[in-house]
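Example A, followed by Example B.
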Amino acid sequence: MPDPLSDIIALLRPTTVFAKGISGAGRWAVRYSAFGDPSFCTILGGSCRLTVDGAPPVTLNAGDFVLLPATPGFTMSGFVPADTRDLVTIDPRAAAGFTGEMRHGDPRGAPDVRMLGGYFAFASPDANLLVSQLPAVIHLRGAARLTALVRMVREEAGDDQPGRDLVLARLVEILLVEALRAGAEREAPQGLLRGLADPQLARVIRRIHDAPAHSWTISALAQEAALSRSAFFDRFARAVGVPPMEYLLRWRMSLAKDLLRRRAGKLDEIAMRVGYGSASAFSTAFARHVGLPPKRYALSA
């Protein structure tokens, strides 16, 4: 059966934008403004403090990994009080060619913390399909596999070898899967990870991804979960955050948008592939969900 998390990541087509070494020494504090794309870092040595807007401060230690799926504003600092250097005017994506180590604080002192940080974008405009299903901060301790992956991203980003972009894209896909897989092992917030952590709901989500064109009903999906209709509906909505048929609709429309962007078939063929018996029925549902008729969407994509 398909893996829904891998389906979504593959559909969004992540690409690496930037990866760099960062260190801090002495008195230092820097603030980044929100920029929306996903970002990550792994602590190679030492420790520092991370404060993400809307969340309590956390201490990051060697071996920790952090993923910010939509990168809100955040501050990183040492533990000695310091004036915060505001980097609000610096778009981290503009530094894609930077390959050295960025130092915060004392430029001469031994570093109190060393880390690797990176940012990436999704080629698909449907990033919210994944991001809306995730916690604002994924913080993992003792994440040796993720640290190794980030090192590989850093090394590959610093080279200009043939096939570099393809390798980076695959590394970032693996990085995301590893981070989300590890995050799912903890108490996940409402969203896809919590749904996949429930064996009965995971079976249903996999069936939806396996056969999006099937004429699913609440009764049929409840049968897949071996639950009554009411118990299944309530359990799915509480775990995933949307009712089952809404999740099915969102997945069908995400597939349809991807097919339209890639010009992967005529309108009636795309309609059949995502569960609609006619191009007109599909067009009506697509326009209601997306705000544009399919043909206009394809032209604007």
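Example B, a separate protein, is given below in the same form.
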Amino acid sequence: MALGGWAPILPLQNGSNTVGEFLQRFCATAEDQGGAASYRLEVEGKIAIWRLKRPRDTTSDVRHADATAVAFFVEILRQASGDAWDPSGVVAVTSDTTLIPDDILPPTSAIPGALGVSLRFQSDLLLLPLPTVDPLSDIPPTGLPQPRQIDLRGRVRQIIEQRVADRDFGIDQIAASVGLPKWRLQSLLRQQASNVARLRDQVRRELAVERLTTSAEAIASIAAALGYTSASNFTRAFRSWTGKTPKEFRNS
């Protein structure tokens, strides 16, 4: 979720009395809107788990939105707890823990996992009165980059991540997406000691490692999702990156 997407949530806060009631209404609203992501509140005795689950085919560019979601929901728990707030009692599992600063959760409370969010906390927090959290002012800064702060390599990487499965999406289409002639894109990337092929390899390697470590997805399926014509081509590329086949890497 990006900050601009919080607007429909604010009325839910105004109509909820407790943290638990807000989360339940949040689940129902998200389900009614039919979004790709799904939310669920699970209570197991003294432990509550708030989950944001994303489809398997979601690209990793949503990790920024997931970090903002962590900040928003942790801020609700913090303000509801008041002076009794203990961040060590909250555990967040999400794909990129480096985007969660220490002033939101200590490093020991942020655990890397699959895309999405899983917040684990004491279930008695669900009974606390719901505070009003204005995401434009109350959420601690998460260190997410503003568009103007993303350099050309970052923009190209984002485009490649979004179209990584499309083998026909080459340098011409990438150049058009960033609004540059192909020769100009190549020249600017060369000045940054990079090129489109190298950035595509980086994106494929990172996505491959993520899928192999966070899912039981078939090797052939991962290969297709990363734009390879065959599992053998993917295996050859993965061995050149890591010295291991995908199967060996997953088993290790």
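On Example B: The CA atoms of residues 164 and 226 lie 5 Å apart.
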